[in-house]
Amino acid sequence: MMKKICLSVLLVLALLLTGCASAQAEPPKVENFVFDDHGYACAISPYGCTLEDLEKALDTTMTDRGSNPVTNPFTYKSYITSAPVTMLGLDGKVDAQFTEDGLFAFTFTTRFTRDTAEEHYADIREQFISVFGKPAEDSDNGLGTQQVEWQDKKSGTALALVYSDLGTTDPTFMVGVLEKWRYMDVDK
């Protein structure tokens, strides 16, 4: 009898372990920012989506900010949300750039009140590091701007956090994803 019970327990454990091993792993993410087969991206606005797709995902319209400066190696159009959107529990604006292939860069920007800025940035920074691991770049220019960036060479994408406190206004915080390869290899 004891042999049957042990065998039954082992069989159940084997089935459970087999089920767990075959489960699809969820891509690492912090709210809408993810790392998946396409690299670093914003889940609600995948690379290549249209302006209309992005407006629908954000539930707001976007205002045309014009074309890129002539110094850029390729042509794109820039848009910004007409109304604030909420991401990472904060209200801010989304800035997005599109080529004829669709979206290639997405940035969420907000301002922190001076009294909570450093604490908010440190908390968000640690959340991203705990999910995405050690960043490829972690810099502080000593003049009030800090940047943390993760890069995926396979997809040519990047995820960046930028905190800027120049002392004249409330500090700015940005989180963005982009197809960085567009700036590195214009022949692609």
TrEMBL record:
Q: Where is the signal peptide?
A: 1-25
Q: Which PROSITE patterns did the record assign?
A: PROKAR_LIPOPROTEIN (PS51257)
Q: Please provide the record's keywords in A-Z order.
A: Signal
Protein name, as recorded: DUF4367 domain-containing protein
